[in-house]
Write a structure and sequence with these properties.
membrane; cell inner membrane; 5-stranded mixed β-sheet; 2 domains; alpha/beta; 18 helices; transport; CmpA/NrtA family ABC transporter substrate-binding protein; about 425 residues
């Protein structure tokens, strides 16, 4: 199948304006969810990068991804912090309000983790005789063993939280479960839980685990209610995370503003990547206006220093967040096609060449290149084979070739056995 306003820190500095903004000063209303992966957007507003480009970012904290989607569609937002699959879903006409959405800029890589309740993890450890520092794949196999015992007793299946059906969290959680031999649609129950509520839901016993972005996994582990069993880097290091979403008609009507926004975000992403700036960044993120989480936890998350549980087990993940390095901001269409493959795998979408083209069209490297130039873009193909580079492999050894997308989906032992049906994005 052929697919087709404050002063910035001195560390990192500020970019020079790309050109005079003939459209005049612009106020962009931007929705976001309180997560560390909104850092680039928040830094652009707080540390002068947007202002340097003649823009003002009016940041609006929201409570759910469905709200963000709807408010962008209904023109209450000009741009939005979005889950990487949301533009793809919109261009495929999926969800309860699939208003066309594109992204010209990724907000970076990393930030997700899978956390299980301490009760469930302790049972897994006993059932499978897990070592304290077992790998992500070993943890998945251990969970499969525990679920088999639960099913044999006829006890209720575990309930796990994800942030949104069309989310990296949903697909990464499913990928991890399936790699361990667990059917996400038959062996567990998946429900939607907003990220800031996950730790409380776990503590209350309403869910048995979750996959969300930082800092909420570490909040749960440091409270003693959860154990982090896998990070995004364990599943696929290059997996796209959050993006800047916008309506295609708005982008076409405001080309200069879009370019200046990308320039500002690029400068902010470079600044966020510099460790010397992480104290200042953590202090801003911890503010009640933004994430409203302990600054110490946010600072450790930025450094990739994980307290896996309340017993002192720790892990350091190099480049847990990549805000800019490795072309982390490039909206690569093969990433959009991988997301589409997971939608097919789990019964959310049908396989067709036209739909593959629609999925790829959600990611707009042409707008990125127009703003930043080819010299700031990767020199390989926009649609490339994914997962075959050392240090950037899928946890189960699969390799994604967009030209062989149907065969790729068919190659998985665990996938949806249900016929395609339109999925609501609210459950």
């Amino acid at each position: 199948m052929d697919m087709m306003t404050n002063t910035a820190s001195s560390s990192g500095g500020l970019p020079s304006p790309a050109h005079v903004n003939s459209e005049g000063p612009k106020v962009l209303r931007a929705g976001y969810i309180p997560l560390v992966d909104a850092s680039v957007l928040i830094a652009a507003a707080e540390f002068g990068f947007a202002q340097k480009e003649g823009l003002t970012l009016d940041l609006v904290k929201d409570v759910s991804w469905a709200n963000v989607r709807d408010r962008l569609a209904f023109r209450q937002f000009d741009i939005a912090h979005m889950l990487s699959p949301m533009p793809v879903a919109s261009m495929l006409g999926l969800g309860s309000n699939p208003s066309p959405t594109i992204t010209p800029f990724s907000l970076g890589r990393g930030g997700n983790a899978i956390t299980l309740s301490t009760r469930l993890f302790n049972r897994m450890r006993d059932d499978a005789r897990l070592p304290e520092m077992a790998s992500a794949l070993d943890n998945a196999h251990a969970l499969a063993q525990t679920i088999a015992a639960i099913k044999a007793r006829g006890a209720p299946l575990p309930t796990f939280g994800v942030t949104y059906p069309f989310s990296s969290h949903n697909y990464e959680f499913r990928y991890w479960l399936a790699a361990g031999g667990i059917d996400p649609d038959r062996d567990v129950k998946l429900v939607v839980v907003p990220p800031p509520l996950t730790s409380d839901a776990l503590a209350a016993g309403a869910i048995d685990g979750f996959c969300v972005g930082a800092p909420w996994n570490m909040v749960a582990s440091e409270r003693g209610v959860g154990r982090i069993v896998a990070a995004k880097q364990d599943i696929w290091p290059s997996a796209p995370e959050k993006v800047i979403g916008m309506r295609p008609d708005w982008a076409e009507s405001h080309p200069e503003t879009v370019s200046r926004l990308i320039v500002a975000l690029d400068a902010a992403a470079r600044w966020c990547d510099m460790p010397d700036n992480h104290d200042a960044l953590a202090a801003v993120l911890a503010d009640p206006r933004y994430i409203a989480a302990p600054v110490g936890i946010i600072r450790r998350v930025l450094a990739g220093e994980f307290n896996l549980d309340a017993k002192g087990n720790r892990r350091i993940i190099a480049d847990y967040f990549q805000f800019h390095s490795g072309f982390a901001n490039y909206p690569r269409p093969s990433h959009a096609l991988w997301i589409y493959s997971q939608m097919i795998r789990w019964g959310q979408a049908e396989t067709s060449l036209n739909k593959a083209r629609a999925a790829a069209s959600a990611y707009r490297p042409d707008l990125y290149r127009r703003a930043l130039g080819d010299a700031n873009a990767p020199d390989d193909a926009d649609i490339r084979i994914e997962g075959n580079d050392e240090g950037d492999c899928f946890m189960d050894g699969h390799v994604f070739d967009p030209a062989e997308l149907p065969d790729y989906v068919a190659s998985f032992a665990v996938k949806s056995a249900l016929p395609f049906a339109p999925h609501s994005d609210e459950t």
